[in-house]
């Protein structure tokens, strides 16, 4: 099978699968380039309310496949950052489902997701120090925001792999699941995400990511928005709310 990003939509959840089994799902140049337009399509699709990123088989992503980049780590970094930023800017909730190795560029992609769930046995590493590469400023800041300066320095300085338990303790992942239970939990959490108000989620995502130029925008959207009335009515009537605000069509 050619290295690729496969994808499907089911129940308002788009799933993107990293597939390159010959190299533990390392990202080729073509795969890096294909992610931003793929995400753009899902962002415009009103039927998509959440996105799951995972790897095929028993691993998430072992980083960049340097052999497809003419031996240029700089090119790999440029492509990885573009994909990472596109994923971080995706306007709907994103969830990384991690098995096996989540290293280098794979760790960049996982960190750019809103939530990260891992199976026991997963290994995480940020490895530019093994190659003499300066880790991108944006990627470094994102890592620091997740795990704090001390843990980020440990990961960056040593380039050592840490297990899922330590990743959980540092905040790099949100939940660790026993072997065989990751898919079930990811599906369960995705169902929760798509049942909630996209207006709440979209505003909270920008605020939590540190964006400060859209306060007035969200204050305006909040005034008289139908999701609030629906949420209150559903609570009083003891039923599931039917939220209608959509990030794809409302902005």
UniProtKB/TrEMBL annotation:
It comes from the Bacteria. Transmembrane segments: none annotated. GO terms for molecular function: lyase activity. GO terms for biological process: fatty acid beta-oxidation. Signal peptide: none annotated. InterPro entries: ClpP/crotonase-like_dom_sf, Enoyl-CoA_hydra/iso, Enoyl-CoA_hydra_C. Keywords: Lyase. PANTHER family: ENOYL-COA HYDRATASE ECHA18 (ENOYL HYDRASE) (UNSATURATED ACYL-COA HYDRATASE) (CROTONASE)-RELATED, ENOYL-COA HYDRATASE-RELATED. Belongs to the enoyl-CoA hydratase/isomerase family. This is Enoyl-CoA hydratase.
């Amino acid at each position: 099978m050619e290295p690729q990003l496969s994808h499907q939509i089911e129940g308002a959840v788009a799933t993107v699968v990293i597939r390159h089994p010959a190299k533990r799902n390392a990202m080729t140049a073509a795969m890096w380039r294909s992610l931003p337009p793929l995400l753009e399509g899902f962002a415009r699709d009103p039927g998509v309310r959440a996105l799951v990123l995972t790897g095929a088989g028993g691993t998430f992503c072992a980083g960049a496949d340097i052999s497809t980049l003419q031996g240029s780590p700089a090119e790999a970094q440029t492509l990885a950052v573009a994909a990472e930023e596109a994923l971080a800017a995706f306007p709907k909730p994103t969830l990384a489902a991690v098995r096996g190795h989540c290293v280098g560029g794979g760790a960049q992609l996982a960190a750019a997701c809103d939530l990260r769930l891992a199976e026991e046995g997963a290994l995480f590493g940020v490895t530019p120090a093994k190659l003499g590469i300066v880790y991108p400023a944006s990627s470094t800041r994102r890592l620091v925001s997740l795990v704090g300066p001390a843990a980020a320095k440990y990961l960056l300085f040593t380039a050592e792999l840490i297990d899922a338990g330590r990743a959980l303790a540092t905040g790099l992942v949100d939940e660790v699941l026993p072997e065989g239970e990751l898919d079930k939990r990811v599906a369960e959490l995705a169902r929760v995400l798509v049942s909630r108000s996209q207006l709440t989620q979209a505003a909270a995502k920008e605020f939590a990511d540190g964006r400060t130029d859209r306060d007035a925008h969200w204050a305006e959207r909040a005034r008289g928005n139908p999701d609030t009335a629906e949420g209150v009515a559903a609570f009083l009537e003891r039923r599931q709310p039917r939220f209608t605000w959509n990030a794809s069509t409302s902005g």
